[in-house]
Amino acid sequence: MTVIDVSRLQKRYGDTVAVQDVSFAVEGGEIFGILGPNGAGKTTTVECIAGLRTPDDGTITVLDRAPHDPELRKLIGVQLQESQLPEKMTVREALELYSVFYPEPADWQRLAGELGLTAKLGTRFGQLSGGQKQRLSIALALIGNPRIAILDELTTGLDPQARRDTWELVESIRDRGVTVLLVTHFMEEAERLCDRVALIDAGRVVALDTPAGLIAGVQAEQRIRFRPSVAFDTALLTALAEVREVRTQGSQLEVIGEGNLLHAVTATLAAHQIIANDLRIEQASLDDAFVALTGRAAGEEN
Ligand SMILES: Nc1ncnc2c1ncn2[C@@H]1O[C@H](COP(=O)(O)OP(=O)(O)OP(=O)(O)O)[C@@H](O)[C@H]1O
């Protein structure tokens, strides 16, 4: 079932066209990623979905309602970039205050426990670490028991461990049946978490697929490295249709090619009683797909 439908969205700020033409549909129960370089229009898109901005053109429906429908306030939880609370407000006060806004709030004490915030209930917002602030903002996005959680750049500024903890948290949110719309410019995050990804560049959707589908769509070369057990004539390998190039680097060989490269190479080596020691395979990543589709590395400005 489609829970968010965005069709031909357009939004400009004065002369700046933030979103030119964005369409996608998010299915219930999935983690849907919006991925793109800085300034691509990701935040503007989710702000329109969350009813915080009015599109110039195009249509958006969220749970079959218009984004500014007051009923939706109870059904979606939003964690936007740089959410700020008063420095002196404690974690407990923030959770209690936010739960009053909703007709059927989650048990905030349980939520604090799930997010590892129980020991911090008496701590003021200004005294929390970056990771704790992020976890609190996620708790506040979930406090109304939403059906959809919108999370924008939720791991920016976190250390690698805190980032991984947050990923587990997002998975646990999905496991509760909440649909997650996740904005990120981290490839690893999208690859690990998202069921599907819309890649946005310069205000347009340039690709929409599963992370694996995006990677497969890139005609990236494959590389295999190994140390052969005995010296041999590399023409054995260059003769294979799958092999484009063989490079010798000291005792190591690097084989570059495409198609079913690994099978072709290992079968040929085995037929000649050559063992491939320390065999390593380099596969295309979402990073490669991103560069191929946008012509830029992730994090570079439009
Ligand atoms: N309130 C605003 N007023 C004017 N221009 C804006 C405003 N908000 C965003 N923009 C511009 O619109 C474009 C898209 O911005 P947006 O924040 O949607 O991109 P983003 O993909 O979320 O970027 P980032 O990854 O850096 O957060 C950018 O050129 C940005 O400078």
According to CATH, the fold-level topology of the largest domain is Rossmann fold
How would you sum up the global shape? elongated
CATH class of the largest domain: Alpha Beta
Stretches where pLDDT is under 50 for at least 5 consecutive residues are: none
Number of DSSP helices? 10
Subcellular location: Cell membrane
Main location: membrane
Membrane topology: Peripheral membrane protein
Pfam family, one: ABC_tran
Architecture overview:
With 302 residues, the protein is an alpha/beta fold. The protein folds into 2 domains: 2-216, P-loop containing nucleotide triphosphate hydrolases (Rossmann fold); 221-282, Alpha-Beta Plaits (2-Layer Sandwich), CATH 3.30.70. The chain has 10 helices and 13 strands. Strands 5-6-7-3-8-9 form a 6-stranded mixed β-sheet, sandwiched between helices. Strand 6 (148-152), helix 5 and strand 7 (179-184) form a beta-alpha-beta unit. The chain is elongated and about 75 Å long. It starts with a strand and ends in an 8-residue tail after the last helix. The model has no long low-confidence stretch (mean pLDDT 89). Bound molecules: adenosine-5'-triphosphate. It comes from Actinoplanes friuliensis DSM 7358. Keywords: Antibiotic resistance, ATP-binding, Cell membrane, Membrane, Nucleotide-binding, Translocase, Transport. One of its GO terms (molecular function) is ATP binding. Residues 1-227 form the ABC transporter domain. Its main location: membrane.
Label this structure with key terms.
302 residues, alpha/beta, Rossmann fold, Alpha-Beta Plaits, 2 domains, four-stranded antiparallel β-sheet, 10 helices, 30% helix, 29% strand, elongated, binds adenosine-5'-triphosphate, cell membrane, P-loop_NTPase, membrane
